[in-house]
Amino acid sequence: MKKRKNIIISSYVKKTGIGLLVSLMIVVAICLIKSDYRNVKSFSNTLFYIGAAELFAGGINFMGSTMVKGDVTYQLARTSTDDSIQKRTRKDMDSTEQRSNFVIHMSIIGALMICFSVVVSYVLL
Question: 98: Cβ–Cβ under 8 A, 6 or more apart, which residues?
């Protein structure tokens, strides 16, 4: 059981690390492309904006998933398929898990980007 838990945690850390690396590469690309963004203050601001956008994306995903689950017409329409109650419930649980993982990853990455922004602005300025 402990080994499985370590594997799951390392998988989350790896996905979060990759997401953080991609976000940092986007920030560096933006700062290199825009010639007026080649200073520390604008780099810090870009880090903050990208982090806030990731937090916003996670929040929008969370709100959208709760709206779909609460939509009566959607739930009623799902009963017209040939799937059994167990299959529909399993699909709901799987999609809820995937959406929750996305929200968690985006929130962590967004918060880390904002923290990096604060560190860059106070340490390097």
Answer: none
